[in-house]
Amino acid sequence: MVKNITIFTTNTCGYCQMVKTYLKAKGMGYDEVNLDENPTRRAEAQLLSGATTVPVTIVTKTDDSQEVIVGYNLARLVPAVAVN
Question: CA-CA distance, 42 to 73, in Å (whole number)?
């Protein structure tokens, strides 16, 4: 089960909007960290993902394991947020 979803975004990222739209359509809540508004958290996103791009979606499960999804990658996002 999903405990928490966090998305690292920027103001101009179209793929970020697509991830948010997908999650909203599925009725899933998420926390958004906008890196344009919170530039000090950019290093956190890079450390978690190994990437310098957004979106970075962190899906935390109830057992506190995390899945990190870079970009708009439905092949990884859909099973990560699936209700078991």
Answer: 20
